[in-house]
Amino acid sequence: MDFLPHFPLRLDSMALFGLTLLLGLIGGEFAKRTRFLPIISGYIAIGFLVGPGGFNIVTNSVLNTAHIFVEISLSIILFELGRHLDFRWLERDKGLLGMAAAESAFTFISVFSLIYFMVGLPKLHALLAGTIAIATSPAVVMMIAYDLSSEGPVTRRTLILTSINNLFALILFTFLLPFIQHETPSLLIKLTQAAYQLSGSFILGTFMFLIAELIAYFIGKHKENQFILFVGLVMLTTNLSQLFNLSTMLSLFTLGIAARNFDKNHVLLEIDLSWLTRLFLIILFVITGVHLQLYGLLPFMSAILLFILIRSLAKTAGIFLFAKTSNLTLQQILAISLALTPMAGVAIGMSNLLVAFNPDFGHRLLLIITGVVAILNIIGPVATQFAFVKTNEALAEDSIK
Amino acid sequence: MKQELPFKENSTLTMGTELELQLINLQTFNLAMEAGDFLRRLSTLRCPGQVKPEITQSMIEINSSIHTSYPSLLNEMQTIRQVLAKEADRTHIGICGGGAHPFQKWKAQRIFQTERFNNISEQYGYLAKQFTVFGQHIHIACKNGDDALYLCHALAQYIPHFIALSASSPFSQGVDTAFDCSRLAIISAFPLSGTPPWLLKWSDFEDYYNRMLALDIISSIKDFYWDIRPKPEFGTVELRICDTPLTVETAVQLAAFAQLLVHWLLETRPTLSHDVYLAYYINRFRASRYGLHASLIDPLHNKQINLADDILHVCEQLDTYTHLYHSKAALEKIHATASSRNNGASQLRTYYAKLQTLPDTVRLQTELWENE
Q: pLDDT by residue (tens digit) across B119-146?
């Protein structure tokens, strides 16, 4: 009876991909029907329900097989994020760059101070926490803007500020990484590694952009061809940066920035990758939900809540400081500050590195970061959606008005 | 009860113009929903004329003040452009001319929230969003209401001339429409578009207006979307047929051309004939479709005429008045456009042939408007 299936049945990665999509779809629809929850909150909730925190249907080992989908989605997101960084805008509106620098710097300093002086973790951990806090989740912001067809001054500024604060966070993180990974080598080696990874990532991203230009000259301005060009380049850049031990995120970001700013002959098209990104992002958010851990956070709850509070205040203060130079209204200041609330899920990955290096302190920081990410995964998307809806930049569904 | 419709009397043949402009997202080169914020930013700046919202959030309208001569109108419009372009640059949006955005989807447009625009949206449904097209209106002052009505009909045979000279909407909804002016097809869908009634006395027009009010067909004179209409509160006749040209310079040349034409019509007073309307819509169609290459039907002389040649002929007739308004340079430009058969539509098609994509075409269109 060899023709019968062999038990126990095991789902492969394709089935898992399909199942996650379907479950996410249902969760998203539930969220949408509440009329105040973003669709991605539904994806996260479904992930939480099927994960270890809920009914424990999807285990971590099963999740590892879905890793590739998450990686592709993050790669595309980072490339897209780079494309939102328009130098011409920064050049013309000095307030915008000031705003980005101020909100990033205030966030870094205030979170560093909290972790170092109040929680009492080592300096390196506090520096890492400060770095992690800078970045707004590009996936959440971009997905909500896409889901709501949100367009307008607040949405555009939220996207470029997210882009810049992620760039700052990526540069700082790449710089800190050698200090986290190595316990004793000399300062020179650490600095050399940081310099290698930073410059190497910028060079790789720029090199891949030049390849893109060459291929684009050859294939011409056809949407279908250039769509494949971008997806291919993003995947190749991801792998090459891993091969050369560079920062994948920074390489992809650089590729995006170059595509936006250095394509002087306009051979690259403005390809909309959002529908493809969306497909992969459903997986990303469901998996985010699976990883959502609320267990064991209670002892750190005051640190977690303070972290969230001062992070939000720091971002608001940074934006407020340069709002006049950028001629923003009070409503726009508050909306942009609110929209920047979601924190990047990759923070957990970043803080995981510390656990390997120093299990005791690393574990404490990991718990705080996990708690912050968990809470911000719940309230962040709602805050961003609220900001876009209240400024009338989101399109009312199926409305002829 | 009869409502008075007083016509403001003007002693000199002044002119003014209104331009509906496109706000452009500089990443995608699609329309940008930025009118509300952009108007707020402009409200704090010193800018001559007026800047106003239009039916959807990606449109604005600029209005000149009243001018007697071509150079003073040109100077003011260039100043307005400079202020707008500088502020647009600061908030990172583009502004461009052209009668239609080449690839925007009407479904994606959003109504600008005012009582009047909400009423239009309520009344006309999807047509309100399709109304995201961009026109130039030219006002020429009239002595009285009778003159304004005379001009409404006397100018009717020159409507194709203005269409072809201003035509700059060859692309619509992502395709080359084969028209030089695709915008008029959108306007024609409105029930109150077309031509004014054959009335030549202002008192008769007042009766007509009151009848339309009583029948609840209109609520103000603004509800008439005619190609030409009298504008009693300004004391002008308003030409509403033109696409917004690609540059403010072209827009001002067209206004100066209209001023000269009105001067000539009022001075020579050609006899009006209702027969001009026998060929009105076919001529309007041909000018929209073929632009300066159109041939028109002259129902008064039972013959076909070449539109570009007729514009050249009109230019020669008007040349003697240019010294009154210092508009010799404007007339020469109009003459050159007609001679070369090169209007905004052909310019945009040339851009597209060179650049291969509509977003790149809009990019150039934006650069042209801001830097001319």
A: 989 989 999 999 999 999 999 999 999 9
In this complex, which of A156, A270, A327 lies closest to B41 when CB atoms are compared?
Answer: A327
Residues of B contacting chain A (CB within 8 angstroms): 25-29, 32-34, 36-37, 40-41, 44, 89-92, 108, 110-111, 113, 118, 121, 125-126, 128-129, 355-357, 359-360, 363
Q: State whether A93 and B91 contact (CB < 8 Å).
A: yes
CATH of domain B15-371: 3.30.590.20
CB of A81 within 8 A of CB of A274?
no
Q: What is the mean pLDDT of chain A?
A: 86
DSSP symbols for A291-338: H---TT-GGGHHHHHHHHHHHHHHHHHHHHHHHTTTT--HHHHHHHHH
- What is the 3-class SS of A3-65, one letter each residue? CCCCCCCCCCHHHHHHHHHHHHHHHHHHHHHCCCCCHHHHHHHHHHHHCCCCCCCCCHHHHHH
- What are the two backbone dihedrals, phi and then psi, of residue B297, each rounded to the nearest 5 degrees? -100, 130
pLDDT tens, position by position, B79-108: 999 999 999 999 999 999 999 999 999 999
Rounded to an integer, what is the distance from CA A222 to the centroid of its chain?
Answer: 30
Which of B27, B89, B355 is closest, CB to CB, to A270?
B27
What lies within 8 Å, CB to CB, of B280 at 6+ separation is B156, B159, B195
Task: Read off the pLDDT of residues B151-167 as tens digits, 9 standing for 90 and up.
Answer: 999 999 999 999 999 99
Is the ipTM, as predicted for this complex, more than 0.85?
A: yes
Q: How far apart are the CA of A223 and the nearest CA of chain B, in angstroms?
A: 10
Q: Tell me how close the Cα of A56 comes to any Cα of chain B, in angstroms.
A: 42
Contact flag B92-A88 (C-beta cutoff 8 Å): yes
Contacts of A144 (CB under 8 A, 6+ apart): A38, A40, A150, A381, A384, A385, A388
Closest CA to A281 of A43, A115, A104, A51: A43
Q: Per the structure block, which two tokens stand in for A368? A: 């705080």
With a CB cutoff of 8 Å and minimum separation 6, the contacts of B238 are B137, B138, B139, B228, B229, B230, B231
pTM for the predicted model, two decimal places: 0.92
Burial of B22 (0-12, 13-18, 19+ CB in 10 A): buried
Q: Do the beta carbons of residue A52 and residue A30 sit within 8 Å? A: no
The reply to whether CATH 3.20.20.140 applies to domain A75-270+299-390 is: no
Distance between CA atoms of residues B281 and A266, nearest Å: 42
Question: What are the residue ranges spanned by the domains of chain A?
Answer: 75-270+299-390
